[in-house]
Design a protein that fits this description.
With about 120 residues, the chain is α+β, with helices and mostly antiparallel strands. It has one domain. It is built from two helices and five strands. The protein has a five-stranded mixed beta sheet with strand order 4-3-1-2-5, with helices on one face. α1 packs antiparallel against α2. The longest helix has 16 residues. The termini are far apart. The mean pLDDT is about 95.
Length: about 120
Amino acid sequence: MRAYRLDLLYAWSSSRGIILTPRSRIRWEENHSADPKEVPEGYDYLLISLVYDVDERGSVVNTGYSMSSSIRSGILEELRRLLKASWIEYADSPDSLNYRIVGLLSGFTGIREWRFKES
């Protein structure tokens, strides 16, 4: 069995949203660590660490997550519900989960366009 950790890091200001995790790293069987120190000055951030194992048959098992953020609001509870449904109970693909998270952040921040840092 192999263990993986994928950190999804998002940052936003009043009009700009950035996904700091490289697009190429948001996939199965990829280890990627992010650090909130990467967040530009004056931006809020959300860091979600997805952890999981892949067994000998290639199945995803033992999913878990942790969350860290510069915000303290109701969106965190909505994110917990999303992660429970789309990661703990049924492991959605990291790419699909990323888009679901961005959708929630868009509703919270009003920012409609999120860009990857490398673009």
